[in-house]
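Re: that chain you flagged

S.,

Sorry for the slow reply, it's been a week of failed gels. I finally had a moment to sit down with the sequence you sent. For the record, here it is as I used it:
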Amino acid sequence: MIQAAPRVIGVIQARMGSTRLPGKVMMQVAGKSLIAHQVERLRRCRRLDGLCLATSDRPGDDALADHAAALDVPVFRGSETDVLDRFYRAAYGQGADIAVRFTGDCPLIDPALVDTLVALHDGTTPPPDYAAIDVSRYPRGLDAELVSMGALQAAWTDAQEDFEREHVLPFIWRRPERFRLSWLTDPDLDAPWRWCVDTEQDLLLVRHLLEWLLPVNPAFGWRDADGAMRAHPEWAAINREVVQKTLPPCNSEGA
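Prediction finished late last night. Pasting the structure tokens below so you have them in one place:
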């Protein structure tokens, strides 16, 4: 009997209650909300079998949930603070065998790079329990973490620390003795840009990039954005002073 291919589901975590830039995921750039740009780009992934939004059940996130539904994206609503529970239930509800985690403040996410991450998982024997894009090499804002549902269920069941419940997957990547870990990386890569949106400066840079790139090629990739940064060296100064949260990878989920 031929075994069915595992079902790979992308889960976008997002909420309106950002501490530094409230409501950022719904802010308009180049005619669309940031979350709409991200959804549109992720729908070009060849290796995702589905996509859903995981947001909180608080009234402040009603507008975001309605917006995602209008984009024809399934929505799961759960705990604002126990994000591991919210993420697990969202992935489980979509019948995932493998979940790929995205945060909702990354409108320049690259679908081809996400596909490469899934291919890294599929091409490794035995496959890793967890794999992530190395954003110490790739630009911030290309963040994606892949996790098997077996490992995710173990984290959901066993994680006790508030830190591990809030940030979703540290229970797994902090335990290399228990889980198989892998990173999509390139030691020769030098692309020190920050393309996730956490501040007004980040938003301004992303606005420049989207307004420059979309008219030329709506399906642009991250290397096109990298080329735009190098063609406009003054853009790098826009958010150079923004301090990234220290927890790798980017865990702001619009927070």
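What I noticed first: Residues 248-255 have pLDDT under 50 and may be disordered.

Talk soon,
D.
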